Amino acid sequence: MPDSPDPPDWIVEQPGLTVFALLSGLLALFVLLPYLQYVLFGVVLAYILLPVQRRLEQYIRPTFAAITVVIATLLIVLIPLVYVISVAVRQSLRLVRSIRQGEINVETVEGVLETNGYAVDLVDLYESNQGRIATAIQEVTSGAINLVGSLPSMFIGLTVTLFVLFALLRDGERLVAWFQWVLPIDDEILDELSTGLDRLMWASVVGNVAVAAIQAVMLGVGLAIAGVPAVVFLTVATFVLTLLPLVGAFGIWIPAAAYLVAMGRPTAGAVMAIYGLLVTFSDSYLRPALIGRTSAFNSAIVVVGIFGGLIAFGAVGLFIGPVVLGGAKLTLDCFARARTDQPIAGAVTGGEGVGAGPTEPAGEQESATESDEGVGVESPTDPGDDSCSDS
């Protein structure tokens, strides 16, 4: 067993300063915790909008560019997002109330099924599971209801998000440079971590969230044309389900097609099934077009990261959770390699493990993305074959 390395000189010579620095960082963390999800939301928005900031800085000063981006984000993203969530909550509550009050005429649905040759006793089935159905829907929307109910806290949180967004857009590069100067990590490892985390963020935000949003909008348009009720709620539910591997939009368009058939519209149900398949299989084209033919996460990290992130960070955990898990694996890989001075065990060059970037860039646009995306993170020109981000 190799001997443990001696502690750095700065720990031995300045123990009091080291303890004070750790306590200061811990106290700062306690200050951030109450609004951590809003701070992280601001970080994600800054990561996405940084290319816009850099483009505007070519024409106006950085401060005015940041103010312009923040105002546009408030008007184009945040206010419409709050409105859509409020509509989805109202529709889900209306659906729960209809189920509990028996407004859904199950006997009519059963009669339609019998005329089409399907003898199903839906009345007993519905009555025996009425409470479970309503409870399940209510649990899905309980988090959003609590968020809408706490309007003052949400207003303060969104204010924090906007200020974090403004600060990162204007001074993000200096903040990242300060972190790299403060952290007691070699520059080579810092470059590798920066490259790996940049790829993780890009794959999470674009590969998961953007694809889920596109598919949700596509399916929502189809549901609206078909006349399915509670379209906004079903669209939001599609977005959440599409983030999960092996689930996707199946969980929405299959019940919607069955509903249309039960309502005596078999043609509309068949069209909905075909359109739903097209929406589901569009993932095979959207994801490679946006991030290349590879993935930075495996299914376990995505599922655990999403559900664990929702509990730990709130709604922003949908895309922060997988990044946290993938970043932890990436950091531990770098730590193990620095400690043992050996290649990482089980590493597969160009594989699809955590932190693996695209093996075949999807054109010049993706190459520019890898170097420009991220809050002040500049990818090294040559990360090397032993980069921790490729492990």
Automatic annotation (TrEMBL):
<feature type="transmembrane region" description="Helical">
    <location>
        <begin position="151"/>
        <end position="169"/>
    </location>
</feature>
<feature type="transmembrane region" description="Helical">
    <location>
        <begin position="200"/>
        <end position="225"/>
    </location>
</feature>
<feature type="transmembrane region" description="Helical">
    <location>
        <begin position="20"/>
        <end position="50"/>
    </location>
</feature>
<feature type="transmembrane region" description="Helical">
    <location>
        <begin position="266"/>
        <end position="285"/>
    </location>
</feature>
<feature type="transmembrane region" description="Helical">
    <location>
        <begin position="231"/>
        <end position="254"/>
    </location>
</feature>
<keyword id="KW-1133">Transmembrane helix</keyword>
<feature type="transmembrane region" description="Helical">
    <location>
        <begin position="297"/>
        <end position="320"/>
    </location>
</feature>
<keyword id="KW-0812">Transmembrane</keyword>
<protein>
    <submittedName>
        <fullName>AI-2E family transporter</fullName>
    </submittedName>
</protein>
<feature type="region of interest" description="Disordered">
    <location>
        <begin position="346"/>
        <end position="391"/>
    </location>
</feature>
<comment type="similarity">
    <text>Belongs to the autoinducer-2 exporter (AI-2E) (TC 2.A.86) family.</text>
</comment>
<dbReference type="Pfam" id="PF01594">
    <property type="entry name" value="AI-2E_transport"/>
</dbReference>
<dbReference type="GO" id="GO:0016020">
    <property type="term" value="C:membrane"/>
</dbReference>
<feature type="transmembrane region" description="Helical">
    <location>
        <begin position="62"/>
        <end position="85"/>
    </location>
</feature>
<keyword id="KW-0472">Membrane</keyword>
<dbReference type="InterPro" id="IPR002549">
    <property type="entry name" value="AI-2E-like"/>
</dbReference>
